[in-house]
């Protein structure tokens, strides 16, 4: 019988004691020793497949659930009805077709979208539907035919060179989005859907990283990480944002990656490899969305703490090298950008420069305080009649979809206070019970708090500038807080543990169902608004 | 494990029951539009205000059974809105909507009247307020135009010195509960969902349902498998 080529190529087993057997044995022992050493140092394996194999099946399942959920949201939300979606799309069109970044108009405001995008937006009744809950998406075959004519009109893709509110954003997310854009052929609606699916994929990765973060944070109850990640996967605002074209979705993924790296560094040591990964994530964050600046303050504080800890407990030189490596890689794009600005006679900090000017530091601080907390005596009343922490942050977290025009009735927001209070109480109970253990992790917790504070302050500064300085609207959208979604997962996990060993599984199951119900009713609300 | 199973069964039953009940409700229908064409076609900016404001317009007809009034106001952080309907010096009905709405219209629930009433002076009070808010509507002769007062205090009769006419009449719609439940409209909603995309058809709704069914099934399976 003749041998198949596969059989003939199979290496023959070397006899025991032969030179090749010894050589192979030696190299296997060396590889195993290297793996053991890497594990002991907390360093990740170089083999990507091995790393992926180590990810628990439950994490993949959670990611798959997030992908399915965000994909459903991407179909439910009508084209361009995601927040600022038309502007983000226009950025990608500019980058893909002209290979250049959008430019800010010198004066006179936004010059307009490309003729093709304008036609398609007209075809889907973008302006009539946006902000207008009483007007649904297009609803007749005649309107559909008109839309198809617009899509196939072959109008020019050359716009004004701007991308609306997205113009000043950095390019990484948009550069990646040119891939699904080019796969969509010449049909703008297909391109938009493929770009939304890319966002859904990012949502799935966010959930995967959140799972690993939670497992790292609380390894003693592995199933709690599954529940936390499931709740994040079913969180409707994350799914909605991931299902539309918006760089926020990539910012969430990067933020989840940063949280995971920090948690690993605090537990397993700040290794060189971890420093490189963290540095790359920081760099990616800076070139994904300007909002990352706020997030980065806490991360850099984390780098300082990690370096000091590492220097105290392990090798001082190695610790300093890791800290410098992460900071250097992370800051590289910022320094390059500033250098480029200086050379080209632009403001050194680019688009962020406008935020630095302030009318009065006290007023700005008062504004930032009031954006989240009740006004204190002596502060100017910036939000009269609005309880910001409830009306803006809580109610809008319960539901704010579409072009900010799809919400639940007010009574739903009030009912939602009950489960939210229960979760907060259980979480508080667990924190209180574990206060001695928490003391050992105080530095790590302070870093997470610093990251959150950085995001809140950055958002407050941007809002103050837009609202008070240039008299436009305040920034009160919970989507800006979603980079901290891994911490929401942690709150869920703590709440579960707060129920005690006996009731923890029941609370976990109830929590998953709570998020599932929230997701389903949010989808129904959006369906009712656009197609009812 | 048994407790988790019971929790899941009860939870799913509860979600299903609330979905069923929700779908028996009706979506609101427009009883009467204040301006021909309704709010969707009357979007002229009559004024931009940033403080406390009261806008009143006369000669409104309040239909019997109207449970909500939808007013053409655009805001990012909408203020608290108080609607008062006067006939002479008498308050016919009124209602309030809490702050923080974002849209180009705000819907305020009111107590329905048993019979239609004409010659109504409708006042909309946005108070307190510090955010920008656009008043939208359609141009009209000055004698028919809405009147604005920056004091934020409406008067039943009007004619107070500080009231200034706007460029036209504010958009108003009177709403009542619809007649057909969401259940009876499931097919039309499913057909509607299939429009406005590159590919058309009711299969798009089926695809969304399949995606969510798969997500729910995986969620339940994972919860049952992982939880002790």
Helix content of chain B: 25-40%
Low-confidence stretches of chain A: 1-13
Query: Main sheet of chain B?
Result: 6 strands, antiparallel
Oligomer: heterodimer
Q: Summarize the main sheet of chain A.
A: none
Total number of helices of chain B: 4
C-alpha Rg of chain A, in Å? 26 Å
Keywords:
heterodimer; A: about 525 residues; mainly alpha; 25 helices; about 70% helix; disordered N terminus; B: about 230 residues; alpha+beta; four-stranded antiparallel β-sheet; elongated
Write the layout of secondary structure elements.
The complex is a heterodimer of chains A (532) and B (228).
Chain A: H1 5-9, H2 19-41, H3 48-54, H4 57-76, H5 85-98, H6 115-123, H7 126-129, H8 141-151, H9 172-183, H10 188-217, H11 222-233, H12 236-242, H13 248-268, H14 272-286, H15 292-313, H16 316-343, H17 353-356, H18 361-372, H19 388-398, H20 410-415, H21 417-433, H22 435-440, H23 442-469, H24 485-498, H25 500-531
Chain B: H1 2-24, E1 29-33, H2 38-41, E2 44-49, E3 53-62, E4 68-71, E5 73-75, E6 81-87, E7 90-97, E8 106-109, E9 117-126, E10 133-139, E11 147-149, E12 164-165, E13 168-170, E14 172-176, H3 186-193, H4 203-226
Antiparallel strand pairs in B: 1-14, 2-10, 3-9, 3-11, 4-8, 4-14, 5-10, 6-7, 6-9, 10-13, 11-12
């Amino acid at each position: 019988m003749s041998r198949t080529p596969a059989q003939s190529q199979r290496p023959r087993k070397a006899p025991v004691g032969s030179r090749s057997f010894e050589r192979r044995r030696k190299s296997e022992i060396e590889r195993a020793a290297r793996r053991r050493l890497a594990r002991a140092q907390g360093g990740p394996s170089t083999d990507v497949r091995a790393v992926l194999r180590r990810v628990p099946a439950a994490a993949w399942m959670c990611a798959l659930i997030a992908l399915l959920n965000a994909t459903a949201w991407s179909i439910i939300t009508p084209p361009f009805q995601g927040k600022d979606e038309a502007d983000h799309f226009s950025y990608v069109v500019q980058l893909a077709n002209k290979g250049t970044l959008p430019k800010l108009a010198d004066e006179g405001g936004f010059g307009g979208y490309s003729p093709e995008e304008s036609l398609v937006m007209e075809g889907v009744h973008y302006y009539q539907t946006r902000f207008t809950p009483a007007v649904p998406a297009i609803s007749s075959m005649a309107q559909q035919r008109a839309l198809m004519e617009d899509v196939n009109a072959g109008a020019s893709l050359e716009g004004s060179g701007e991308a609306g509110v997205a113009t000043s954003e950095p390019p990484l997310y948009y550069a990646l989005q040119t891939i699904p854009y080019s796969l969509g052929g010449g049909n703008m609606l297909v391109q938009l859907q493929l770009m939304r699916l890319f966002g859904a994929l990012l949502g799935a990765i966010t959930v995967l990283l959140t799972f690993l973060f939670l497992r790292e944070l609380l390894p003693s109850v592995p199933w709690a990480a599954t529940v936390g990640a499931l709740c994040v996967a079913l969180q409707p605002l994350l799914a909605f944002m991931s299902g539309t074209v918006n760089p926020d979705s990539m910012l969430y993924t990067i933020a989840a990656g940063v949280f995971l790296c920090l948690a690993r560094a605090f537990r397993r040591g700040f290794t060189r490899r971890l420093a490189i990964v963290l540095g790359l994530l920081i760099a990616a964050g800076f070139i994904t969305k300007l909002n990352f600046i706020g997030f980065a303050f806490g991360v850099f504080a984390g780098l300082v703490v990690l370096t000091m800890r590492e220097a105290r407990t392990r090798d001082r030189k190695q610790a300093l090298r890791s800290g410098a490596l992460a900071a250097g890689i992370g800051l590289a794009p910022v320094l390059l950008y500033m250098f480029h600005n200086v050379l080209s006679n632009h403001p050194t900090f680019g688009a962020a420069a406008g935020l630095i000017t302030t009318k009065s530091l006290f007023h700005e601080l008062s504004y930032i305080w009031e954006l989240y907390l009740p006004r204190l005596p002596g502060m100017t009343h910036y939000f009269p009649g609005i309880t910001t922490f409830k009306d803006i942050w809580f109610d809008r977290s319960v539901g704010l979809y579409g072009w900010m025009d799809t919400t639940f009735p007010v009574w739903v927001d009030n009912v939602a206070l009950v489960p939210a209070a229960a979760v907060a109480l259980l979480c508080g109970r667990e924190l209180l019970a574990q206060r001695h253990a928490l003391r050992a992790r105080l530095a790590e917790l302070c870093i997470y708090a610093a990251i959150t504070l950085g995001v809140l302050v950055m958002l407050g500064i941007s809002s103050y500038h837009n609202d008070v300085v240039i008299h436009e609207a305040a920034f009160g959208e919970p989507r800006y807080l979603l980079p901290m979604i891994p911490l929401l997962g942690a709150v869920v996990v703590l709440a579960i543990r707060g129920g005690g060993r006996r009731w923890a599984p029941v609370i976990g199951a109830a929590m998953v169902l709570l998020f599932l119900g929230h997701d389903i009713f949010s989808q129904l609300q959006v369906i009712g608004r656009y197609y009812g | 494990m048994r407790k988790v199973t019971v929790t899941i069964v009860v939870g799913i039953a509860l979600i299903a029951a609330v979905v069923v009940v929700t779908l028996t409700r009706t979506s609101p229908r427009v009883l009467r539009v204040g301006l021909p064409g309704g709010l969707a076609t009357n979007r002229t900016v009559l004024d931009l205000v940033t403080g406390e404001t009261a806008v009143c317009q006369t000669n409104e007809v309040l239909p019997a059974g109207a449970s909500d009034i939808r007013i053409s106001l655009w805001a990012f952080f909408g203020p608290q809105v108080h609607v008062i309907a006067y006939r002479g010096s008498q308050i016919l009905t009124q209602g309030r909507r809490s702050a923080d709405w974002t849209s180009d219209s705000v819907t305020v629930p009111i107590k329905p009247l048993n019979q239609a009433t004409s010659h109504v002076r409708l006042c909309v009070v946005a108070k307190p307020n510090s955010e920008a808010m656009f008043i939208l509507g359609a141009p009209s002769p000055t004698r028919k135009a809405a009147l604005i007062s920056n004091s934020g205090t409406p008067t039943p009769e009007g004619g107070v010195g500080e009231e200034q006419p706007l460029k036209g009449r504010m958009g108003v719609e009177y709403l009542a509960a619809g007649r057909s439940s969401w259940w009876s409209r499931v097919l039309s909603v499913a057909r509607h969902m299939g429009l406005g995309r590159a590919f058309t058809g009711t299969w798009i709704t089926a695809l969304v349902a399949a995606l969510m069914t798969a997500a729910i099934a995986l969620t339940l399976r994972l919860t049952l498998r992982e939880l002790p």
